[in-house]
Specification:
With 300 residues, the protein is of the alpha/beta class. It has a single domain, classed as Luciferase-like domain (TIM Barrel, Alpha-Beta Barrel), CATH 3.20.20. The protein is 36% helix and 15% strand. The strands form 2 sheets. An 8-stranded parallel barrel has the order 1-2-3-4-7-8-9-10, surrounded by 5 helices. Strands 5-6 form a two-stranded antiparallel ribbon. Helix 2 links the parallel strand 2 and strand 3. The termini are close together.
């Protein structure tokens, strides 16, 4: 089981270059970064975790920050947790994702989700009740552009003509009933449920929930949905985000077959973040990669 890290990276926290170097030096598997384009001041949507952290309004662009991280590391995986796909032009986003994956040697894991802030989404023209269908459609547009041969797609919320589009993501296509799944490893965030698990099995590679509550009940349901969709059981990837680690927790997650744990770092300056990293480093060495699986870029 791999151990990665995440934090709300802002213009006031540790810089991505310093953080990435420190994570790689300590043996962490990856750096995952979240996304908010802006936080409208007039907001009725409650923050899922209680009081809205002020860092949400100061987040750096994850793709720009991860590009800096990629440039100063060789093995560190790069991830988003999550990309708000509905708030992007899919053709432009497909180019950003493929470019980062190409330049990093295939180190990108694309965490995607549907968002929680109705006002933020509305400013991007997203109709809340159809946001899940919108994300599904935009992922299909991107996968058409990532396909090995020019491929068209026409959906309810968007379309693209068969096009030459390069670079291509590094990861090999994964087989599905509906045709090969192109692009970097893609994990969908969100709470457990039949609808989410059906979407994961249809157009993703796995699940990226916050924390690990209830996994003993939910993971079998996800694996059943995955098998019912005809997906290879070995291809399912589960990463837990924003984990406050303890030895007991990590042992429990590993027993359940979790592939990656993403520990939560504070949204602080260098001194604070490095102090916490010093304390978390021991968890990396408690959970080495399984035999035969190193921390190479294409395996992250």
């Amino acid at each position: 089981m791999r151990v990665a890290a995440t934090l709300y990276l802002t213009d006031e926290t540790i810089a991505p270059i310093r953080l990435a170097r420190e994570l790689e030096q300590r043996g962490f598997a990856a750096l995952y970064l979240p996304e908010h384009s802006h936080i409208p001041v007039s907001r009725e949507t409650p923050y899922p975790g209680g009081e809205l952290p002020p860092e949400c309004a100061r987040m750096l662009s994850p793709f720009v920050a991860l590009a800096q991280a990629a440039a100063v590391t060789d093995r560190l995986g790069l991830g988003t947790n999550i990309t708000l796909v509905g708030q992007h032009d899919p053709i432009d986003l497909a180019k950003q994702i493929a470019t980062l994956d190409h330049l990093s040697g295939g180190r990108l894991t694309l965490g995607i989700g549907y968002g929680w802030n109705k006002e933020e989404a509305a400013d991007h023209g997203v109709e809340w009740r159809t946001r899940r269908a919108l994300v599904r459609d935009r992922m299909a547009v991107m996968r058409a552009l990532w396909a090995e041969q020019p491929t068209s797609y026409e959906g309810e919320f968007g379309s693209v003509r068969a096009s030459e589009a390069h670079p291509k993501p590094v990861r090999a296509p994964r087989p599905r009933k509906e045709g090969p799944l192109h692009g970097p490893r893609t994990l969908i965030g969100g709470a457990a449920g039949p609808k989410l698990f059906a979407h994961i099995a249809e157009y993703a590679d796995g699940w990226l929930p916050i924390g690990g509550g209830g996994l003993r009940e939910t993971l079998p349901a996800l694996r059943t949905a995955w098998a019912d969709a005809g997906r290879d059981p070995a291809g399912l990837y589960v990463a837990l985000s924003a984990v406050e680690p303890t030895e007991g927790k990590l042992a429990h997650y590993e027993e359940l077959g979790v592939d990656e744990v993403v520990v939560q770092l504070p949204a602080g300056g260098e001194t604070e973040v490095l102090r916490v990293l010093d304390g978390f480093e021991r968890y990396v060495h408690l959970t080495p990669a399984p035999a035969g699986q190193d921390r190479t870029s294409t395996d992250l």
